Amino acid sequence: MDKRQAIGSWLSGPRAAAEDMGVDFGYRGERLGLPEEGPGAVAPPGRRIGALLVDWGLCMLIAYALLSGGNVQTAGNWALVVFFVMSALTVGTIGCTPGKRLMRLRVISETGSRLGFPWVLLRSLLLLLVIPAVVWDRDSRGLHDRLSRAVQVRM
Fold first, then answer.
1. Span 141-155, pLDDT tens digits
2. How far is C-alpha 124 from the chain's CA centre?
3. How much is the pLDDT for 13?
4. In terms of DSSP H, where are the helices of the chain?
C-alpha cells in the first residue's frame, strides 16, 4: 500500500477502506429483509431529515399560536411537548407523522407490522433526546429506532 492509498482510505472512512479490502456490506435494510428500492425500502436520510423539519415547523407553529402567549422562547419549550404528543399519537395510530406522510415515509416494526404503542412512546421519548437520533447503524437507522425495534420505510 502506498501513501496515496493510505491517505485515501483515511479520508474515505472505514467503510470505504473495508470495501476496498473486499468486505460486502450489502444494501441498507438487507439484514432486515427489506427490498433495496421502492416501497418498503429503508427511507433515505434526506427524506427523514426533511420530514423532521416539517414536523418541527408544525410543532413550533402550534406552540406559538396556541400555547406560548406570543413568547418565542416559551414556544420552543412547548414545541417539545407538542412534538412528543404528535409523534406518539400519529405514529402510534397511522404509522407516520404529517412530515413523514408528506415525504411518503412510515414507521413500522422490524417484523413489518405496525409498531406497538409502548415502543412508539419509547421511540418518541428517545427522539426528544436528539443524541439517539444522530447515532446511526449501517442500515441508516437511528439508535432511537433500533432501541424501539422500528424502521422507517418508503410508502
1. 889 999 999 999 999
2. 11
3. 66
4. 3-12, 14-20, 45-62, 72-93, 98-102, 117-128, 131-134, 143-147
The Cα–Cα gap between 134 and 75 comes to: 24
- Angle between helix 72-93 and helix 45-62 axes, rounded to 10 deg: 120
Rounded to an integer, the average pLDDT of 29-37 is 84
Q: For 114-143, what is each residue's pLDDT tens digit?
A: 999 999 999 999 999 988 888 888 888 889
The continuous run of DSSP H or E covering 107 comes out as strand 105-109
d(CA 152, CA 10): 31
Write out pLDDT tens, residues 98-111.
999 999 999 999 98
| Three-state secondary-structure class, residue 142 | strand
Residues 6+ apart with CB under 8 A from 9: 16, 17, 20
DSSP state letter for 34: -
- Calculate the alpha carbon distances from 73 to 58, 61, 68, 80 in Å: 16, 13, 8, 12
Instruction: Choose among 54, 55, 53, 75: nearest CA to 64.
Output: 75
